[in-house]
Amino acid sequence: MLAPGDLRPLVEVEDLVVSYGAVRAVDGVTISVAPGEVLGIVGPNGAGKSSLLAAVGGQLRPTSGRIRLDGVDVTKLSPHRRARRGVVRTFQDTSEFGRLTVFENLLVAGLGMHGASLYAATVGARAQARRTATAAARAAELLARFELEPMRDTYAMELSGGQRRLVEVMRGLMREPKLMLLDEPTVGVAPHLSEQLRREYRRIAASGVAVLMIEHVLEVVEEVSDRVVVMDNGSVIAEGTYDEVMQSQAVREAYLG
Amino acid sequence: MSFSSLDFYLATVVVIFGVDVLSAWGLNLQYGYAGIPNFSFIVFQAAGAYTAAILTLGPMTATSGQTYVAGTHVPFPVALLAAMAAGAALSAVIGVFAMKRMRADYQAAILLILALILNQFIVTDTSLFNGTSGLANVSRPLGSLVNPSTTGWQWAYAALVWAICAVVLFAVQRLSRSSWGRALRAQRDHDAAAAALGCNVVALKMQVFVIGGAIAGLSGGLLVFYLQAFNTASWGYEETLAIFVSILIGGVANNWGVILGTFLVQIVFVEVPNLLPQFGYIGLVDALEWVVIGLLWMAAIALRPQGVIPERRVRAERFGLPALRRAPPVAAAAAAPGQQGAHEERLGAAGGASRR
Ligand SMILES: Nc1ncnc2c1ncn2[C@@H]1O[C@H](COP(=O)(O)OP(=O)(O)OP(=O)(O)O)[C@@H](O)[C@H]1O
Ligand SMILES: [Mg+2]
Question: Which residue in A47, A239, B116, B161 is a FRET match for B139, CA 20 to 30 A apart?
Answer without folding.
Answer: B116
